[in-house]
Design goal:
globular; Endonuclease III, domain 1; DNA_glycosylase; alpha+beta; TATA-Binding Protein
Length: 311
Amino acid sequence: MPGGSVDASRVDTVYRPGGAVDVRATLRPLQRGSGDPAFRVEGSDVWLALRTPSGPASVVVRPAGGAVAVSAWGSGAEWAVAHAPELLGRGDDWSALDVSTHPFLQDARRRQPGLRLLRTNTVMAMLVPAIMEQKVTSRQAWRAWRYLLRRYGTPAPGPAPADMFVPPTAAEWGAIPSWEWHRAGIEPGRSATVMRAVRVAPALERTLALGRGGSVVSARLQSIPGIGRWTAAETAQRAHGDPDSPSVGDFHVPALVGWALTGGPVDDDGMLELLEPWRGHRERVVRLISGSGFRKPTFGPRMTIQDHRHH
């Protein structure tokens, strides 16, 4: 745990990782679109509105030379500061990842020395938005996220930027009426999955004790009807810091991996075959690719946008 200082409702610490940490790249997976009420970038600062086990917290993360300054406000401030090192990648060990046999990955790693896999230590806070993103475009899911956070979230405490909201608790997600899910564009299948998840929220949070993900964590998450391999991976990547959980079933990731590594698109099976030499680090490889600036060709079919709000 870092040593923090307290000033009124504010808690401060400085995390010294002993190596490079790219704050924005490391925290980027937490951002749900450009208008995310729980994530804001202001200059080099990253603001987060977090739902912690101790309550809501506003957190600002500031690069400070070879260190990272973290300040937090709210009843969850001390918890947020105590877990800030893991949020910024402490325990995420890249030393065994060997990309020397692939020039693209070797260059991507060279240009992203500060990339780390985060670990939020909050399962439900990562699971609910992942459920929202099932089988729809990111634009639809992020619109729903904004609507529900602004309506049912908690205004971010302290001096957080305006219009930031802390996501609801598991119980508060469970109390949202069906018609509000409908207005947000979330059809009954996905909202029912959220309801099933919130009923076993304490058990899901206990999976954090199992370490940085893996097959057991994935199986526990997938034991809930409506949660499949993709949703489990998206959750474990963020909540547990799982380094080996690529998003199988994603509309974009397999093609991105295929184009980057072979110059052509692949499906899920093809992606897993390409990533097999880096088993144990497969999500790290995907993050290297996605953060490298590489873009796959834009031709090809687009996912059809379905608006469930008017059905």
